[in-house]
UniProtKB/TrEMBL annotation:
Cited InterPro entries: ADH-like_C (IPR013149), ADH-like_N (IPR013154), ER (IPR020843), GroES-like_sf (IPR011032), NAD(P)-bd_dom_sf (IPR036291), Zinc_ADH-like (IPR052711)
UniProt-recorded name of the protein: Enoyl reductase (ER) domain-containing protein
SUPFAM superfamilies: GroES-like, NAD(P)-binding Rossmann-fold domains
Sections of the chain in a coiled coil: none
Domain of life assignment: Eukaryota
Alphabetical list of PANTHER family matching this protein: OXIDOREDUCTASE (EUROFUNG), PTHR45033
The organism of origin for this protein: Dendryphion nanum
GO terms assigned for molecular function: oxidoreductase activity
Domain Enoyl reductase (ER) residues, every copy: 14-350
Length: 352
């Protein structure tokens, strides 16, 4: 399969703030390195990080000010280098989010992160070239739009749920908000037999989410400001086994009260309310007495991506409920603006 000499993309307009994204034209190499794979990108899913990178002080990791944004895509292999063995033309693939952490070995943990769409190459483009080692095959039953949502939100949710290494019978989980990570975690939970609870300040959003399955419980934190008390009520006083915190440090005291004693895991994955938090000494006492686990999650490895894809494939999990709205490639700026409003439930996708 042939590919063109040039292709369309979007790039950030740094280094002077405020940044935006603008159309750009890129060149594809005439000759491929032996392990290179050329992909034709079919759909891109946006994450909070993508627009946060455009805002001064909103994203606390290195970002290429003029780089191509976005990390999540579904693509088709259109050309391969002469030493590529894992992929063939026509395969459906996606690059993993951290190009330095593929197998999560001790050696890799000492390497500097190369984050797709951040300080590494992004995917908001018609084509891209990656080394085969950073690519994974996507589940065959998913549409381009569904498959594009896995890379960041899916892997983060998967790791936060312990990659389902522990038995799931009788397990419950609470997910903050209705964004991509929470909604992906909800779909994984349902497929694995985990009882999900999701929070929002909008009854409209909660009603929309609960239509996915009668197993889903919802908590409106505006009408039930004591989320821990409501979660304990919904779990017969036991608490939840998993809690995904997307908002930041201020809810951690409540989160710890929500967790199941000696079994609960709190995963800190987001900072929608900023980086600062005010805690009193009771937080540390609660952590010790309840003997729960707190972990920070940036995302996951290529192995995590492959394991999640295997789970989605075996369970034939539909990711259609995850998709809130699909934009045309030419409307990418509008897609970023819509994401920033926070009106979405799940993922905002750009079709290319």
């Amino acid at each position: 399969m042939s590919y063109p000499k040039t292709y369309r993309s979007y790039r950030r307009t740094g280094p002077t703030y405020p940044w935006s994204i603008v159309p750009s034209t890129e060149k594809l190499p005439e000759t491929l390195a032996e392990h290179d794979v050329v992909i034709r990108i079919r759909a891109v899913a946006l994450n909070y990080r993508d627009f946060a990178m455009l805002k001064e002080g909103r994203y606390p990791v290195p970002v290429d000010p003029n780089g191509i944004p976005a990390s999540d895509c579904a693509a088709e292999v259109v050309a391969i280098g002469n030493a590529v063995t894992k992929f063939a033309i026509g395969d459906h693939v996606s690059p993993t989010i951290n190009h330095a952490h593929l197998l999560d070995t001790p050696e890799e943990r000492d390497l500097e992160d190369i984050a797709a769409g951040g300080n590494g190459p992004g995917v908001l483009a018609e084509y891209a070239v990656f080394e085969e080692k950073v690519l994974v095959k996507l589940p065959a039953h998913l549409s381009w739009e569904e498959a594009s949502t896995i890379t960041c939100a899916g892997i983060t949710a998967w790791v936060a749920l312990g990659a389902l290494r522990d038995p799931t019978k009788g397990t419950t989980a609470l997910f903050q908000g209705t964004g991509g990570v929470s909604m992906f975690a909800l779909l994984i939970a349902l497929a694995a037999g985990i009882k999900p609870i999701i929070t929002s300040s909008s009854n409209e959003k909660l009603d929309r989410v609960k239509k996915i399955s009668p197993e889903i419980e919802g908590i409106n934190y505006k009408t039930h400001p004591d989320v821990a008390a409501e979660a304990l009520r919904l779990t017969d006083g036991k608490g939840v086994d998993y809690l995904i915190n997307n908002t930041g440090g201020n809810s951690v005291p409540s989160d710890l009260k929500t967790l199941r004693t000696k079994r609960g895991t709190l995963s800190l994955v987001g900072f929608l309310e900023g980086f600062e938090a005010k805690w009193d000494s009771n937080v540390f006492l609660t952590l010790i007495v309840k003997a729960v686990k707190v972990q920070g999650i940036l995302s996951g490895s290529r192995k995590d991506f492959e394991d999640l894809n295997r789970f989605l494939d075996e369970k034939l999990v539909s990711l259609e409920p995850l998709i809130d709205r699909v934009f045309a490639f030419e409307d990418s700026v509008a897609a970023f603006e819509y994401l920033e409003t926070g009106q979405h439930v799940g993922k905002v996708v750009i079709k290319i």
